[in-house]
Structure prediction request, 263 residues.
Amino acid sequence: MSELLAYPAQAPRRGAKRLGLSLSLGALLLLAYGLPYSQPLFAALFPDLARPVYLQEPMSVLMWQHIGLVLVSSSIAVIIATVAALATTSKTGLAFKPAMEMLAGMGQTFPPVAVLAVAVPAVGFGELPALIALSIFGVLPVLQATMAGLASVPPSVLDSARAMGMTPRQILTEVQMPLALPLWLAGVRTSVVVNIGTAAIASTVGAKTLGLPIIIGLSGFNTAYVLQGAMMVGLLAIAADLAFDELALALHGSANSGVDNQA
Prediction:
């Protein structure tokens, strides 16, 4: 019954989100693979530039390298943050909760450029310093969201679980974690979308990302390169954000269906 009440109101919004996701993905792939054929368009937009289209590296290759760097760094950040947040649910780990929040906050306050500058002398140029910087930068949103989700579980629910004879591990895995899932997912979404934009500056230390045409364009006073790189990063961030929104709606619908089946 609740599904019948909820979904008519959400249907237009969900349809618009899906349309936006399809359009952003289509525009992203069109720009990535069709950029070499857009010479007349950018030549008309930037008539003063001798080379109005970025052709040093295939934009599609840079896009997949950018996505790979974000996926790996975000996965590391999510694992670290989730494990740290879950550790605070125990009596021993609860004492370290303020220290975890402080360390994560400190990692967020350092600009990624500063972390890159410190990491390069230690590990050299390339993807590794970018991976370190993005992983550190992505921990805080997931950590805060996971701890907030675990803390949002009503005490009455926890008391009921204990009264049913559930062990602390069962309470964590079968009660707290499912109820904290929406907030956890929101934290992952924020972390990934922020990392998509932040990964662009990784090209300053030799990592091949979508920031490469932006940096080359800025150093060579080529506005077209900057625009093409920025459009790619922006479309990728929009597509990722809408994809997470679709995932959240799907999880919400699955939860509603489970409740209705139990009823």
In short: Confidence is low (pLDDT under 50) at residues 1-7, 257-263. Residues 167 and 250 are 30 Å apart (CA to CA). The radius of gyration is 22 Å.
